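Before relying on records like the one below, remember that each one covers exactly one chain. Contacts with other chains, cofactors or solvent are not represented anywhere in the record.
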Amino acid sequence: MSESSSLAAAPAGQALTVQQVSAPMHSPEWAAWLSDLGFLPGEAVRVLRRGAQRTGNLVVRVGQSTFALRHAEAECIAVTPRRHD
């Protein structure tokens, strides 16, 4: 995973950086809601756990907070691997 992809496609455990948050046309309010939760460009994020199905819920950590997101919500968050400076 060298280029930006969605948080929904990210492997569990990998340190990531939020690049962008968007929203589907049917739920434009998701972008503001995800930003309010802390999914902001430059923020550290990591998938901690996935549901049993590949398109199930994800448990993610953003900053110091942990959330459960639906797959569709995680699709709205573009991420890249976190660089170790």
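Residues 23 and 32 are 9 Å apart (CA to CA).
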